[in-house]
Amino acid sequence: MSQDQDELVEWLGRCVLPCEAYVRGWLRRASVQPVEIDDIIQEAYSRISEVRLFRRIANPRAYFLEVARNILYEQLRRARIVRIDTVAELESLNIVDDRPSQEQAAITREDIARLKRLIDQLPDRCRKMFVMRKIQGLSQKQIAEALGVTENTVETQVGRGFRLILNAWAGDTQENSERRNVDHERTRLRRKSD
Fold it and tell me: How large a percentage of the chain has pLDDT more than 90?
């Protein structure tokens, strides 16, 4: 099995499999017959396992539910007789839209830019290993071989980079929080004096 396949199997077991009971419950509430539920779940696993960019799925539970729902819709379109309670359940389904709001998207862009700046500020050796490990997804062994260092060195440098970024992030967050508190207090005092 290739490394990508190993990672996919691990991801499915860690992120998708725990959601199966939730998806099965939703299918039961949609009045899907037990034998059909098994078929839908199996087909959903099959489709999810074909996704090449599975690492980018931010909410595996919502994704799994959406895949199962799409399979159910396909079956209902092909069926000649559809139970009314199944249609009612589908209509009442509120799958959370994982797309961020415009405000959240702007905050995310700012956070990504901030993270990039913090990574760029790391010492050269530390930054190179951190990027190879955390952004490019290379294993410690691959990085060690590519750079001619030990795996322990890679682990140490990546850990150091992670700590430096977390400390800088926390410091920035504390400063921003204090600045917001001061601004809030000024605004409150202005309103009070008016």
Answer: 16
